[in-house]
Every structure is written in C-alpha cells, then in structure tokens.
Specification:
By secondary structure, this protein is of the alpha+beta class. It contains eight helices and twelve strands. β2 and β3 form a beta hairpin.
Amino acid sequence: MENKNKLLTIGQFAALHGINKKTLMWYDEIGLFKPAAVNPQNGYRYYNYHQSSILETILLLRELDVSIGEIQQFMKHRSASSLAYLLEEKITDLDRTITHLKGVRKTLCNHQQNMHTLLTMDLSKISIVKKEERCLVTVDINKNTSFEKEVEMIIAETKKYQLRRLHDASYGTMISVDNLYQNNFDNYTKLFIEIPFPMKKTGLHIQPGGTYIRAFHKGDWSEIPIKYKKIFDFALKNKLTLSGFSYETGINENVIDKIEDYITQIEIPVLTK
C-alpha cells in the first residue's frame, strides 16, 4: 500500500481481513477492537492499516477457540510475555487436538479397510499376508475372567490413555500358539487395544512385523476351533510354523445385528521352514 496512514471504510477493512463488517461492528460494541475514527455526523467507522496486525491477532485467537473474555483480558494487558504465554497454551491445546484427529483418521481408515475386506473377502480362503510392527496395550485374562471384569479392565485402559470412547481404538483378543497346538482353543491370555496415536513402547506388547497367516471365521466362537484346525493344515502344507500369538479381531461389529453374522479376522505370525 502506498499510503498506510489512509483511512479505510469498515467495508474495505473487513474485506482486507476476509471477515464480515458486522464482526467489526460487534467488536467495537463490546470494546474489543475500536475503529481509528468515527464520523460524528453519520457514525461511519474508519480504520487504518496499522490496526491490521492487532485485528489479525484477535482473529487468530478466535480461530484457536480463545473466548472473547480471554481476548479482552489479553488486550487490556497486551505484551510480548502475555502473548507468548497465551500462544504456548493454545499451541499445546492444538497439538492435543491434532493428535486426536490423527487418531480418529486412523480409526476411520481401519473401519474403511474392514469394510473393503468384507466386500471382497472369501470366508473359506486362508492367505499369507505381510504386516508391519505395531504396539498394543494388553490386559491379562484367563478362562475364569468374567465379562464384567474384562469390561472393567478395558475401561481402565481407555481412561489411562485418554481415549474419549472405546471405539477410538481397535481391539481384540490374543491366544498363544502353544495353547492352540494343545487344543486349548478357549484359553485366551490377553485382550489388546491398538491406541491410534504414537506411544512410548515401554510396557507395551510389540506385535511383530513380518509374514502372517490370515483367515476368517463367521458366527459365534463355539466353532472357531474348526477354523484353527484348517489353519494348521494350511501351515503344514505350506511349510510354515505358527509363532507367538494369534490375534483375533471382529471386523463387522458396526454393521450387524446377529452374532451369527459376526466375522472374526484371525492373524498369526509364521516362520518359514
């Protein structure tokens, strides 16, 4: 601008900052942001270019969901230190929101992948897939662990990791390969939760990356041993050795009403002979 001291009409100043002039009128009425001059005859408000940085600061704070009251307090005691403190506080809040949104995106992507699997799957097929390493929160269970106790432990973990809802994460059950080979198909040892945002690995279960057998079971869990026996035969035929744990995950809970339609995805890491 050639003349930064020239007065701008409220419409021009609002357009310069991409806002409605009613916003400027409201800011004036509540004493948050006053015009540089007011025509005493018609009450028209005028602003100068030097006010732009102040208005942009107010607009930035509003975009960060800082309340009008907080901004008014800041404007009364405006300084480099007070702005630095306020921005640091809001950057922390923003980082927390970004982390949450990334987690939501990952959860949505997991659901999307599950739906794609449902639409393209062959329930009778057992396949070999590659998986990346992932970190899981786990809680120990056994045959005697009641459903109520399992729910209690899961709720405790979701609170511990500040999940807003249980379905903000992927979850499932784990059974050791040793138990499977001993035909202890109901001896589950852990419940797992995959938290959808980065965490320190300390104290977490590391699900190894590498080659996995993947299979699907439809219906309740009473007949799942039949599927595991088919997996044994597949592994033997393909000279694969099951390793570690079998990871079971329900992939269609949000689109069914009957347990008969429930589909469990089974994934087991394997070693080649």
